[in-house]
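User: Some background: our group keeps a shared notebook of sequences we're curious about, and every so often someone picks one and asks for a predicted structure to add to the entry. Today it's my turn. The entry only has the sequence so far, pasted here. Could you supply the structure so I can complete it?
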Amino acid sequence: MSIKHWPQNDRPREKLLKQGVAALSDTELLAILLRTGTQGMTAVDLARYLIDKMGSLRALLNADFKELCQHKGMGIASYAQFAVIREISQRMLKEQIRCQPIFSQPETVAEYLRLYFNHEQVEVCIALILNQSNELLHTIELARGTINETTVYTREVAKTALKYHAASIILAHNHPGRSAKPSSADIKFTENIKAALNLLDIRLLDHFIVTTESITSMAELNLIT
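Assistant: Of course. Here's the predicted structure to add to the notebook entry:
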């Protein structure tokens, strides 16, 4: 049954118009996105079922194609729709931080990094390339590894920073399924990168470690001095 056939009081779209989008539950938001249900289930029923099976709306939207298609009513169209939503969200956040000093909006930067890494199943390391005003110029993937390890060479970071005319950079990498606490290897790597960039008169401002649940700033832990 489509939304237009639902009882007036059960229509999330009408609730959105009357009360605003923030008033909607995760189930109602997803129901509007789905528009229709599947055999024996309304869109709200299907939305509730999917969130229950996946554990959260975030987990659902970040599921890979194979995992998503194991659930009722899900297929290539739904996967494409969710992938587009993720990408639009990431681009909007990137645009927000592109034209302002990056440290004037730390929460936006953190959410951008969470979105960037959210769907990754292996460890990935990136560099945020900044200009003299600490405005974001580029996001560059430096390396992609296994489930719990990646290798980034100091010379490659230095080459990337020079290639994109960085005044400073921020490093970030994810820990899939692990703690956001920096390992001894993370700390040593960061020290090496900072020393190499200092020789090029390029600043390393921070190194973030990202998981699905949390994000750690090594600068805030005084691990970058």
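Suggested note for the entry: Residues 3-74 form one domain. The longest strand covers residues 136-144.
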